[in-house]
Amino acid sequence: MEEKPEGEDQWEPRFAGHQSLQEREESFLARDQKINCGFVKGPQGYPSTGFDLAEDDVNYISRCHIAVISCIFGNSDRLRTPAGKMVTRSSRKNVCFVMFVDEATMQTLYSEGQTPDGGFIGLWKIVVVKNLPYTDMRRVGKIPKLLPHRLFPFARYSIWLDSKLRLQRDPLQLLDYFLWRKGHEYAISNHYDRHCVWEEVAQNKKLNKYNHTVIDEQFDFYQADGLKRFDASDPNKLLPSNVPEGSFIVRAHTPMSNLFSCLWFNEVERFTPRDQLSFAYTYQKLRRTNPDKPFYLNMFKDCERRAVAKLFRHRSDEKRNVQQRATL
Question: Alpha carbon 296 to chain centroid distance?
Fold first, then answer.
């Protein structure tokens, strides 16, 4: 909860708070402290900062101990139900499958004949989010992606799945394979093509993924704080790649995993929603700031991600494809 600073008449509460650079620096210290991590409330009398859920949905979520999470905001994708025959009876009993959507996406689902039955469409529990904290749907989507421990306060594990993916494996098997076997807390795949943030920056600009000036500001900031080019031959490199694929993340909700998630979200909030630009910097700074506190991160090969989740096109890409075929 934030208090209004004295003498600032234009001040308004924000979902991610108003974190100063000094507070940002101290937030990387793995210690007992209060840090910004989304869902910040303003003083009494101020409106909600957003991402509002119905009470029934909050109650449902609070009972989840293992969660498979996805979201569709702004009608960006079709609803992909996990491959039912691959989900064991044990997972159906112990795992929550939660799909966050906005009201516009919900209307589209209704118009396409996908009406929730008792709140569910297939395995997905459909949770409608009101009062979105950002106008950029990509940034809104980072909330369930990067802050599952905030949305699911009693969950011990979560699996994040971009809405363009369909889960093809049993969730409990995935937890075993990516986390439990070797004692990992966090698992994410490397990018199938790029491994250096310099390449990722160039690609984002080439495809006009975000404002070039803001990308440059972020990149310059990171270089000034020690980010180096990726060197695959460096025996002391902290990661097998500095660019994640990012559409599939498996987490144990441990203190270090949760701290990393908060720090990564704050970078996405401060700079650009292109989370691949901030991943390696955030991880390396966390490790550098806390050399005595291990964080067991498993960065696996992207072919392993493709083996567990099938990729589909976004709605906008589907339309483009149809238009291209029509002009041929």
Answer: 18
